[in-house]
Amino acid sequence: MTRVFFVRHAQSDSAWADDRTRPLTPAGLADCGKVTALLSRIPVDVFLSSPYKRSVDTVSGAAGFFKMDIRTDERFRERRVGENGYAVETLERRWSDFGFHEEGGESLGSVRKRNAEALNDALRMCAGKNIVIGTHGTALSAILNYCDDSFGCEGFKRIRHSTGVRKH
């Protein structure tokens, strides 16, 4: 059996301008220890991640515990945000129309397609293994929607605003 463990990055510094290099906050760094403690109880075979610093940093302690490298995949990256990309009305429109995107932004349909491709490639290449994937709230939500189309805007809002480590 192949098992996939998605890890949404820990709390990051929202004041940091560059999305790719945005670091974790002190609270986020503390939560990384909780992620490591949880994952250390699972026989992990492979670590994959978005190349964004906050995602890699969130799973790096666990990868270190297992003495493994983290393979990054650009397809697991966060959604490219365009003008007014964080407005509530834009968020809800994006989830009701997967082809919609704001100027300079990326649609959820595009995010879902590239994340599903990355996930399916990982499942093929790592069949029968335990896979950890470091990702982002939007990317994870798009994957969940790909697997179950009833997962939508409300589910995304729960992921986006959740804090701490949860085992489901």
What class do helices, strands and sheet pairing give? alpha/beta
Number of strands: 4
> What proportion strand?
5-15%
The main sheet orders its strands as 1-4-2-3
Poorly predicted residue ranges: none
Share of helical residues: 40-55%
Spatial shape: globular
Main sheet summary: 4 strands, parallel
Distance linking N and C termini: 18 Å
Write up this protein:
Helix content is 44%, strand content 11%. It contains 6 helices and 4 strands. It has helices at residues 26-39, 53-65, 88-96, 108-125, 137-147, 153-161, and strands at residues 3-8, 46-49, 70-72, 130-135. Helix 2 (53-65) links the parallel strand 2 (46-49) and strand 3 (70-72). Helix 1 (26-39) runs parallel beside helix 2 (53-65) and helix 4 (108-125) packs across helix 5 (137-147). It starts with a strand and ends in a 7-residue tail after the last helix. The model has no long low-confidence stretch (mean pLDDT 91).
